[in-house]
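Regression test attached.
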Amino acid sequence: MNYSNLLKIAKNALMRNKFRAFLTMLGIIIGVASVIATLAIGQGSKKSIQDQMSSMGSNLVFIMPGSQQRGGVMMGNSGSQTLKLEDVTAIQQQCPDITAVSPEVRSNGQAVFGNQNWPTTMFGANALYIGIKKLEIESGRIFTDKEITSLAKVCVIGKTVITNIFPKGTDPIGQTIRFKNIPMTIIGVLSEKGDNSFGQDQDDIMIAPYTTVQRRFLAIDYITGIFTSAISEDRTTEAIDELTTTMRKQHKINKPTDDDFRVMSQSELVKTFTSISDILTMLLGAISVISLLVGGIGIMNIMYVSVTERTREIGLRMSIGGKGQDILMQFLIESTMLSVSGGVFGIMLGYLISAMVGSLMGWPVVITTQSVVLAFLVCSAIGIFFGWYPAKKAASLNPIDALRYE
Amino acid sequence: MNHAIIEVINLKKDFFVGDVTVRALKGINIQIREGEFVAIMGASGSGKSTMLNILGCLDKPSSGEYKLDGISVSELNRNELAELRNKKLGFVFQSYNLLSRTSALENVELPLFYNSKVKARERKERAIAALESVGLADRMHHMPNQLSGGQQQRVAIARSLVNDPVVILADEATGNLDSRTSYEIMELFQRLNTDKGKTIVFVTHEPDIARLTSRNIIFRDGLVVKEQMVEDRLSAADMLKSLPLGDHEI
């Protein structure tokens, strides 16, 4: 039997009942479309998290103070004063997978210019901090080593602070603002970064030499964090190990449970957040796969009914020379055609829904080739799988009984 | 004398219904030669339908021999039987058995779809020729529900002709038609028989239809009880003329 004939026979048989064919396909259409759309939304949110995170530096590894015991009393994490400038120096010298290190100290307060003021955070760091945090100087410059040693009253400033305290059109560079009543000269402006995925404004920031923040604002000698860059994202695990080893040596810690610091990496955070979105995607995907399955059962149902309804037709086809396998193939091709064309329409509908979700609700959507291929393969498989039983039933009919069927 | 298209020797067919064995055919001997127009007659339950099923290669005998155009059918499997039906047989049924919502042309083409040797172009040409020979060339794109009963049966006859079979098997082909249309169909069969030399086996229980054929084989209780040549064979065309005007001509 030649297949182009069978294809034509199956096509003609379907075309004889266009509306029913469409209704049968509807289950598959909706199933495939929902698979595509949910995967697109899932992938979109995953990608946006990843983009956000890597914009904050995917090779970022940082150390935060951990809890510490003082005479048997556990101290909380935030009050910890365990991180020292010596740790930064040690990391610089002993960690080959770390390319840049900066201490970080923070001071919250009001930035004041003229009669305007704005609550913001003054970060104390060294010049490498900008690179580590993937920030950029839009105009002006970052402070020099000399300014660090001399506790210079200079800072670079983020866009949010500028718009809130300077009148429009003012060039902030060279202006002096007051932060906690200490005059600070602005030497550089950071380019805009927008909100991060937690909704934090990354432009509401000022950066000064860490010495200045430590001594002039906080009067402390410890630091509140150490920020580093690993050589690459792939090497972050090694970088974390090196940092941990160095820190333990610095702090003379033998048991990991005694650690008075925590090493964290951006890529780990990314993993945590993407795994949450992965779980959601899987959940939604599973629901839409169920609807695809229901669509498949719909096809089986219709094909099954159609075998009964078309018993005489089958008998006729057999009497004029259709073999069992011809009949089998005809019904199998019919169900595959239904599910495959349902799949094609479903993919188109899926694109449409994704685009609508993207533009109307502003959700990030990404349709990957894999999801399209997957949906398509699954629905073809469903057509063959669910078409098999009715087709087998049709093929095994006795031509005489089929012909006389009322 | 023409060679035998159908040769049935001591053919028996038993059916098993639960514990009961129904002996539908009890030893049939028939020979049908090329160019004959044979009517198989008999009351219901006489075994004529079973005979037709076996002649049509839709069923296999329990014992005995059946040779169709020199091929011994008893030894063939299901697929070979299907192929035989496709190449050597044409069926015409009482209830036409046309595919609904399918044009006359496509209905006629159908047997050729199952013959992979026939290409699309040839398929169409042969189907058109078959429709022309039954006088429906102008209706080839009509759907069955746009055709009258007689026309539908003509389409079915065209379908049975399209594969150029060695024998056409008609099962009560006029059973659903009024007498005028019946004669029209019989006239067509007679024409195919005399003009084109088609061998036709026609199962009927109507004696006046049987008189339009060349030989009658009468079945009773699974046996051939009578075989006779039709002495005063009638012409369906003459019968038509003698009929009062039919409804559709008014």
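Expected vs. actual: identical. The longest strand of chain B covers residues 4-17.
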